Amino acid sequence: MGKLSETWFADGYIDFELKKYTLLSYLQEIHRAFNQNMLYPQLADIIFHFNNLRAFRENKQLMEQQFPKRLTGIDLEKLLLLYEKVSADDELMQELEEIIAYALSAMNDTIRDGTEIYEFVQDKLRISPVGLVPLENTSGYLLLCDGRYSDTLVYSYHLTIFERHDEQFRGIRTEYLEAYTKDLVHTCEHIKTILIRKNNQLPNPAVYCVETSLVVPVNETLLPVAKRSLVRYIALNAA
Q: Which of 15, 49, 141, 235 is 20 to 30 A removed from 170 (C-alpha atoms)?
C-alpha cells in the first residue's frame, strides 16, 4: 500500500494540483483494497491521516511547529539559524488551506465507503460464549469461522486498557494458534477441551466463538472486525 507521510500536505513544493495528484493516487489504492473487501491496514491508515489533517488545521500551535520555515540568515555570534515563519495570511498558507480542505472532503468520502463495509461485516457476525464464562475474562480464546465452513481458526486473546485524554479505551491483542477442520468431532466445545488440556495456566478459560456466513479476507477484514466486536461484546456483557 502506498504511504503518505504525516506531513505529506506540507512536504516539499506546496502546490494544490501536485498534492491533489498525490492524494488521489493514495486514495485509488485504498479503494482498490476496499473493492476486494480488504479493510486493514487501509481503513486505519486513512482515518489517521484524516484526524492528523483536522488537528493540523484546528491547532495553531501544531501548525507553527510543523509548518515549513524559510531560512533567512545566520547569527554568527550565537551560531543560530534564523527562520522566518510563513505568516498566516501568506499566499502559501492559502494554498495549504485549499489542499487541506480538499483532502478532508475526499478522505471523508473514502472513510465512509470503508465504514459501510465494516458495518456490513460486523452486522453479519454472531458471537457466543463457549460453555461457562469465568469472572476473569480478560484473557482467553477466540474461535473464528467464516462462510467456507471448512476450518475453525483459534486465537488467544488478551484485553488491554489504555488511557488517553482522561478517557479509558479497551484494546485487544490476539495471537494465532492453530486451525481445526470443522466437522462433527471438532465442535467449539471439543476445541475448548483441547485448549484446556494444552494450557494448564488457563484451567477455565473464557472462550468465544465468532461465526459469519460471509467469505471475506481473514487477516485484512474478518479478524480485525471480529476483534473489535468481541471487545464490545465483552464490555456489554460484563457483570
A: 49
